[in-house]
Structures are given as structure tokens and as C-alpha cells.
Amino acid sequence: MIGLALPDGPLRVVCLAAHPDDVEIACGGTLLALAARGGVEAAYLTLTGDLSRQDEARTAAEAFLPGATSVFGGLPDGRLPDRWGEARAVLHEHAERVPAPDLVLAPRPDDAHQDHRLVGTMAPTVWRDALVLHYEIPKWDGDMGRPSTYVPVPDALARRKVELLDACYASQKAHDWWDHEVFLGLLRLRGMECRSRYAEAYTVTKSVLSLGRGTP
Known about the structure:
Blueprint: E1 11-17, H1 22-37, E2 40-48, H2 51-64, E3 69-75, H3 84-97, E4 103-107, H4 114-126, E5 131-135, E6 149-152, H5 155-168, H6 180-193, E7 199-203
Parallel strand pairs: 1-2, 1-4, 2-3, 4-5
Antiparallel strand pairs: 5-7, 6-7
Helix pairs in contact: 1-5, 2-5, 3-4, 5-6
């Protein structure tokens, strides 16, 4: 395995979600690790969600990455492909608010859920010069793929992630897939794949490798 690293110093991060809770389910450990790193300016965009769910999402953003800002697109849940033009406009508006991010977290472009898939497909075409990490979300569809990039998550942060998910998203706790075994189980599986106890995994569709000093 080859280790990659984000640049030292302040980071500007864009977190894209089709629905409230997408980012924290998929990337909660990564977000907590970024918060511990410090110097992170995070801007969330969530395309759907009624007012009560927006309140949950704002609370979660602040809990995982203190100081994060949250913007909502107000589009209908489950219908984003029907609102393609509006969804793209919302993403471009966010790109104008947050120019030149260092990192964009977005759904996988091959996610089985139509809303996730649309956001994941659009993200790299809107943020062409940023590193886009496409995250995975466990769900009924059984669409887990083969990730290419891993972020090890310390044990304490993995457990903090699942605690914060429960605390911030009380409206979701009745779902049969919402429990610590699901979340920690996926963290453990991805950790095993990268020789860590826990990890979160991503796919990268395009990246640029710098060969170091003296290269063009």
C-alpha cells in the first residue's frame, strides 16, 4: 500500500450529501480526525431534508466538525434525478461560496440510491481541481463496492462516531439498519483491509500524482 497525505496547514473541505446524515454515516470518523487535526474550514451542502432534519444536520455538522457551515438545497427526497438542472445549479452555487477546496467528500457515483448517485456523479465535474473522495453508505441495497482509498480511524474516534450519530439523528434510530453493530462492523471491515483496527473507505475516480522536486 502507498500512503497519501493531505497538505500541511489549513484545509478547506466541502461535504456533499443528498440527505441529512449521509456524510456522518459515511465519513464521521474522518470528520472527527480532521477536527482533531485542526485548521479545517468545512462547508456542508445537503440537497434534501425538511426543517426538522435540517436542524439535526446542523447539530451533527457542528458536533463532528466544530465551526462547520450548513446549506440546504430544499429539493425533494428521492426525486433528485427528476430535478437534475436544479440540483446542478445548487452544487454550482455552493462551489461559488466555497472556491478552491482542498477536499470534497461526496457519495459514490455508482451508489444504488438515485439521489446519492446523482450527487456523486456531479461532484467531480463541479469541483474539477479538488481531491474528491467518494464515500460509501451501508444500506438495504447491498451495493458495497471495492474502495481504493482508506482513512484509518483511531478506536476512540470510531466509538465517538457512533455515539454522535445516535445523539444527533434521533429521528433515524427506529430504522432496522441503524445500530452500532452496522456502523462499527463496517469500520472494522475496512480497517482490516488497510491493516488498521478501524477505517473508513473511499473511491477516487481521478487524482494527480506529484513526483516531487524537479518534476514539471
